[in-house]
Amino acid sequence: MAVVAGNAATLHAFLPLLLIAFVEVARVVLPEMTERGDGAFLMAIGYPAARPVAGRSGPTAVMAAARNRVHTLNGEVADAGVYAGTSPSAP
After folding, report:
1. pLDDT value for 31
2. Which of 36, 40, 54, 59 has its CA 20 to 30 A from that of 11?
3. pTM here?
4. What φ, ψ does residue 44 adopt, rounded to 5°?
5. R_g over Cα of the chain
């Protein structure tokens, strides 16, 4: 039987760096961008966020959540002339 690496404690440890920081930065910079009707919010993410890698279920789950949030955010700010996207790093 395979051992599952990810658990709640593992996920919790990665939340501040890989998800909460992004949410807070977006909260600070997006109002000005939407007000002027121009801007781009680009988040560099690890490759496993888009293509899961065995043995990295802790950070990968949190990176995937951040990736999903960016894509959702893009739909919310696109009409205001702002782009939100990701730039995955190579494996």
Report:
1. 97
2. 40
3. 0.79
4. -80, 125
5. 15
